[in-house]
Amino acid sequence: MYELIDGKATSAAIKEEIAEEVKQLVKEGAKTPHLAAILVGHDGASETYVASKEKSCSQVGFNSTVLRLEDDITEADLLEKVEAVNNDPGIDGLIVQLPLPAHINEQKIIEAIKPEKDVDGFHPVNVGRMVIGLPAFVSATPAGILELLKRYNIETSGKSCVVIGRSNIVGKPMSILLSQKNDFGNATVTLCHSRTPNLKEVTGQADIIIAALGRAEFLRADMVKEGAVVIDVGISRIRSDKTKSGWKLLGDVKFDEVAPKCSFITPVPGGVGPMTIVSLLRNTLLASKREIYK
């Protein structure tokens, strides 16, 4: 029988821990952590995500600011806004909500954020520091997955781990973190993607599978060995006549098929998703304490 990895309950527990720490810091005279988000345009998913971040900041006692900009803003003007936040000593962390409009170079904007305020962990300096094992702001989703593995006492050392998907936000950093020489690394990691010819064979030998490719119900029972740990990062919005909204959220894993073969598995929703926001909060707390860039 599998054990469900509950990201919702875990993130709630971590929020309580952060709130307690913030209370203590403020009591000792430290400033209240402050997270700023820049939201360009009116994308529904981005609006929802930013609102969720605002709510989470409030729950743990952070200050938060959202700069809402129209989608016709020029790249130069957006860079000016980023620079203004970079230079504001009252703000500890800055995220620029992606995706950005097509006329704006996302990478240029990411690189404009000061590494010490880059709580999303996307800046090349933070990525480079993470790769060589220096203190860094780690991308929120991989950091959240690692935290779930820790809190559920899932052994990674010496295990065969397969990461499906090679995005800069999840797949690549996840593969690096799991292979690093530390307590929750030391795995033998295979990074698979759309050009991997024998994927079923590779995943079928894995002790841990991280599915992060964004294709609904891609991972099936015949791709997973008995007793595997499966972490489902994907989330796809699919039309459904069985829900009030007319939509259903599905992960990258065919849950009903795969779960009976697992020792541990994350659900969608309620698995990795809540851990992403809580990891962002932890990064912001670290930024306010100046623990990464001293």
Summed up:
Helices cover 38% and strands 17% of the residues. With 294 residues, the chain is α/β, with parallel strands linked by helices. Strands 1-11-8-7-5-6 form a 6-stranded parallel sheet. Strands 3-2-4 form a 3-stranded parallel sheet, sandwiched between helices. Strands 9-10 form a two-stranded antiparallel ribbon.
CATH superfamily of the largest domain: NAD(P)-binding Rossmann-like Domain
- Arithmetic mean pLDDT: 95
Strand content: 15-25%
CATH architecture of the largest domain: 3-Layer(aba) Sandwich
Helix content: 25-40%
Strand order of the largest sheet: 1-11-8-7-5-6
The ordered string of helix (H) and strand (E) elements is EHEHEHEHHHEHEHEEEEHEH
Biggest sheet features: 6 strands, parallel
**pLDDT < 50 stretches:** none
CATH topology of the largest domain: Rossmann fold
Tally of separate domains: 2
- The CATH class of the largest domain, by name, is Alpha Beta
Number of DSSP helices? Answer: 10
> Which word captures the global form?
globular
Radius of gyration: 19 Å
User: SS-based structural class?
Assistant: alpha/beta
Strand elements, count = 11
Distance, first to last CA: 46 Å
